[in-house]
Amino acid sequence: EVKRLWVVPAARRKGLARALVAEALRRAAALGAPSVRLTVWDWRREPLALYRSLGFETVPSWDPRPGLLCLERPLAADRVELLAPGAVRAHAADGLAALLVDAVDGGASVGFTAPLDAAEAASWWLGAAEEAEEGVREVWAALDGAGRPTGVVTLVRASAANGRHRGEIARLLVHRSARGRGLGRRLLAAAEAHAAAIGLTLLVLDTQAGSPAERLYRGAGWTAAGTIPDFAADPAGVLRATTLYYKKLG
Questions:
Q1: 224 within 8 A of 244, measured Cβ to Cβ
Q2: How confident is the model over 143-158, as a mean pLDDT?
Q3: What is the CATH number of the domain that holds 18?
């Protein structure tokens, strides 16, 4: 169980808390622990967002105190983590590029046509790493036991002065070999929790109308705002309708 996580105020916002928890998780895994658990008060939004971005999920309470949430993270399952810009860059040419290529090969309408070259996919992720450094885009990945990405999602913050309350969910991808394990839901939840923690009050996204992703978004509380016909071509070049979704936070 993780307890007494504390960083002095002068040293905060440098990634120290994330590094401490990550090291605790590594040591627990090395000792053969099947999972790690912790408790956090429900009003502590920033620590809660940190824990969820590291793959912790709310579980039935083992502590009766009102307002105290109990979280747990299995160590054997794929973990969901917010990637630093350097990590996005490091994974760009292999795992992240492979996710994008797999999505296009599987018929997903994610801004590319088939066949998608791995070098082009890697180039897109290198651009995403630059945006992460600029604070424009944040990237979460589901990582398997060997540290390979099996899923990814990004959050893009609006740049307009009158739109800084909102963000866009983009590139929610799970490799076809890793589907059916709830990774898409976990990735989406991590991005939503972080968005709420940094003060965003509205999220938007778009997806191909009739795609399996629509079930995920509706199940996660997103609302369809409308459908635009012939909005974008699928990987085969056929024009498809796109549905716009939004979710209010807080």
A1: yes
A2: 93
A3: 3.40.630.30
